Amino acid sequence: xxxxxxxxxxxxxxxxxxxxxxxxxxxxxxxxxxxxxxxxxxxxxxxxxxxxxxxxxxxxxxxxxxxxxxxxxxxxxxxxxxxxxxxxxxxxxxxxxxxxxxxxxxxxxxxxxxxxxxxxxxxxxxxxxxxxxxxxxxxxxxxxxxxxxxxxxxxxxxxxxxxxxxxxxxxxxxxxxxxxxxxxxxxxxxxxxxxxxxxxxxxxxxxxxxxxxxxxxxxxxxxxxxxxxxxxxxxxxxxxxxxxxxx
Length: 247
Ligand code: 1GP
Prior knowledge:
CATH class: Alpha Beta
Number of domains: 1
Shape: globular
CATH topology: TIM Barrel
Mean pLDDT: 97
Distance between the termini: 32 Å
Bound molecules: SN-glycerol-1-phosphate
Radius of gyration: 16 Å
Strand content: 15-25%
Largest sheet: 8 strands, parallel, barrel
């Protein structure tokens, strides 16, 4: 089993260093602008690239990841919405189970279909408990999951969900309001999860400013994921990365 991505993440977490992950949605990649954006990612020490989406309409993952790999050595980690998004071109995969849901297809169904593909592809597997939380609007992730998100004002439910995932042996927790959420996951919920668990916590969805990135990190997020804000304004990368790197 490969472990270099996990070793890198875990080392940073144990030295209490926060990490920015940039989410690239395959449907929204502007290939002409990609080289300069990737150069900025290198310059601002982006730790990880998450690659995927809840709904895909273009299926050029191998080629797009190949292009990315020609531009950077930042690890490219699949963040798949379904089994269709497994690509051997990536470095690793967030092997997600949607533990906030009661939808068997996203708890274990898609994973059974994906497992042999992931094994054959030789991807590093990051077993990740994925929790969707209400961010004030119905994001594509929430709609496509056919599940109820965690209520934003009930941190205890999120904390118990995360604790159960830790007890089940998962290695990472991902609290996500979904791409383009109005509100990022509440700091009270992040704090409650960190109080109850010891796993590295990934937080994303609706983070749009350096202040929000800072607040999410302060509450306990170890990896802060930003996608939509950079699609709207790539110039934000420098300030948001600085907020996280200087934390
Ligand atoms: C979504 O956590 C990611 O799954 C990032 O969300 O695109 O809103 O930054 P944004």
